[in-house]
Amino acid sequence: MIDPSYGVVDYDTYKDATEEMYSGLEMINFIKDTIMVRVIDENTAYAVFKGSAKGEAKNGTKMGINDFYASMVSEKVDVQWKIAHTHESFKQEMMMPSTSDSTTVE
Length: 106
Prior knowledge:
With 106 residues, the protein is mainly beta. 12% of the residues lie in helices and 59% in strands. A 4-stranded antiparallel β-sheet has the order 1-2-3-4, with helices on one face. The longest helix is centred in the N-terminal third of the chain and has 13 residues, at 11-23. The relative contact order is 0.19.
């Protein structure tokens, strides 16, 4: 059973938890290079993703994410697969909007 103390028990909860981050984006495009899925047993599986992304915030800031890595552990609950845990790692590059002054982000 998925432990609710971890915070994510279903897709809607996960979506709500990430809404703040995604609400500031005008667009984002994920490109997956590699996807690996492994079944551990009849009720547990994990997936690992590698890829890149390009996006733009609503304020015009452009961003690039090179070599992002993500993993998901899933558990079967009442014949449905549920996400039990996720993790993402990436190096983000940001470019200031063209209307900005000479301020840099480090």
